[in-house]
Amino acid sequence: MEKLNSGSNQRSRLFMSKLLNALIRERTRKNITPDMIASHLGYDAGEYVRIEKGEQPLYLSDFFNICDLMCEDPREIIRDLAKD
Questions:
Q1: In the chain, which ranges are continuous DSSP H helix?
Q2: Rounded Cα distance, 43 and 52, in Å
Q3: Which of 13, 21, 48, 83 could be bridged to 38 by S-S, CB 3.0 to 4.6 A?
Q4: What is the model's pTM?
Q5: Is the dihedral of CA 37, 39, 43, 47 positive or negative?
Q6: pLDDT over 50 at 1, yes or no
Q7: What would the DSSP string read from start to end of 32-54?
Q8: pLDDT tens digits, residue range 4-63?
Q9: End-to-end CA distance of the chain
Q10: Distance between CA 3 and CA 75 in Å, rounded?
Q11: Phi-psi region of 56 (alpha: psi -120 to 50; beta: other; left: phi over 0)
């Protein structure tokens, strides 16, 4: 049972890493700073940077709010991740 959980955890970490990289890529492409996103989410800039580094969790509501700020469809970001 432990092996099953460990594989699932690895897939989850890989997915989150890809998701964060996709958000960073879009943010950079649209010239949106981490400060702008942090302000939009109600976080301080350092806290948001820790989220981007994977040191703190990215909540689903934050993901949707970031997509809203960047005028991106969250479904497209997820679809693009599924292609990889």
A1: 2-29, 34-41, 45-52, 60-69, 74-83
A2: 13
A3: 48
A4: 0.84
A5: positive
A6: no
A7: --HHHHHHHHT--HHHHHHHHTT
A8: 556 678 888 899 999 999 999 999 999 999 999 999 999 999 999 999 999 999 999 999
A9: 28
A10: 31
A11: beta
